[in-house]
Hints:
Number of domains: 1
Bound molecules: ligand PBG
CATH class: Alpha Beta
Strand order of the largest sheet: 1-4-5-8-9-10-11-12
Distance between the termini: 36 Å
Number of strands: 12
Oligomer: single chain
Amino acid sequence: MLHLRNRPRRNRKSAAVRAMHSETWLDARHLVLPLFIHAGHGSEPIQSMPGCARLSIDAMLQELGAAHKEGLRAVILFPKISESLKSSSGAEAYNPAGLVPMAIRQIKVYFPDMVVMTDVALDPYSSDGHDGIVRDGEVVNDETVQVLCEQALCQAEAGADVVAPSDMMDGRVGALRDALDGAGYTNVSILAYTAKYASAFYGPFRDALDSAPKFGDKKTYQMDPGNAREALRELALDVAEGADMVMVKPAGPYLDIIASVRAHTTLPVAAYQVSGEYAMIKAACANGWLDERQVVLESLLAIRRAGADVILTYFARQAARWLAAPA
Ligand code: PBG
C-alpha cells in the first residue's frame, strides 16, 4: 500500500461529494440563443448548421415560445437580408421598417421579459460583404462608426435591450454610448465584441446569412488569432468607452483569452461559441463519433470555467433542455 497523505480521489468518491466540490456549473440563465431571421415565409434549414434555420418572424416567435418554456431569457438576432436590399452604404441597417426592428417589436409584444440583443455591423446589409463601408478597397473606420450609430439607434428605438457591436471598428463603443445617451436611451446596454478574432470558424454563419466578404478578408479589423496581449488593449479601450459587458469570440479555441479578459476586468464577460464550433460538434455527433449531450455540456462548461459569465451558443435550447432533465 502506498502511504499517501493526499488522495485527491477522496473528493470525488460519490456523486454528492463531487457535487459539493464542483467549482463551475451551467444554467440556462447564462445562455443566449442566436437566431437567424429572414423576410421569407416559414423556416429554411441551414445546411452547414444542422438544427438551425433562417426563420420568418412568425417562426421566430414560435421558436422563442419554446425557448422561453425551456428557461431561456436572452436572444440575439442576425438577419439574412435579400440581395436587392444590400448596398455599399448598408443603409438598410437603419431602416426603421426593416427586418430586425420589426422582429424586435414583435418579441417585445409576446415576450416582454426576454432580453433582446442585436448585432451592430454592416455585413448582412453590405453589397461588399464587409462589416463597414468600403472606399477604394479599404474598410473605412470613422464613416462606418457613424452608420453603426444610426443602426444602433434604430434598434434601440424598436426596443432592443442590448446592442452588440461585432464590427471591430475603432472607437465604436464610445460613439454608440454617446449616440444612445444623446437620444435618451441611457438604459440600452452595450455588449462589446472586445476580442473578436479573424477566424475561419465563422464559415457556416456566413453561409447562413450569405454574408461572406466579396473581396479580401476581415484581417484589417478583426484580430490576429496569434495575439493575446492585443485582447487586453481592446479590453482597456472598450471599458474606458463605456462597455457594459465584454466578449471573446470564438470561444472554445480561445479559452486562454477568456481567462485573461476575466482576470483583467470586473465587467461581466461573454463568450461566443460560434457557428464553426457548433458545426464541428454536430458533424462528429451525426457520425456517431461523439456523444452529443456530453460533449455539448462539456464544451459549455469549459467556456464557463475559463471565465465566461454568459455564453452565446447555437446549442442554447438543447443545453437548457438537458440541464432541466439531468441524465
Ligand atoms: C459579423 C458577425 C460574424 C459573426 C457574428 N457577427 C461573422 C463575421 O465576422 O464574419 C459570426 C458568428 C458565428 O460564426 O457564429 N459581424
